[in-house]
Please model this.
Amino acid sequence: MDSFLLTLRLPFVADHFHDLPGFVEARHGHNWEVAATARVLEPQEAVFASSLGTWVSAIDYTLLNTQPWLAGRNPTAELLAQWAFERLRADGVDAVSVRIREKANYWAQVGPGAGEA
Model:
């Protein structure tokens, strides 16, 4: 059975604030979007979708600063992408990349090829 790349995109809404030296902003919210790409076999599509959906459900409509994974760190798009990538991998998904959109013109991506346009 051949594998293929599948990309799933899910929106979520969450607030955050920045309160570390050199990076301070008051609490504010965004309409975020995660776009994750994984190498899958057809039977694994449901596992990928479930894993990503569970991650989004856990942070949707929350204050990101209260998430244990982000404790002591500024919740940036870069960290959210890393967290989602690690979560997918921990769930057995062969994640290739994860992109998080914080603003219309601002994305952060992790995974092989993240530096490529």
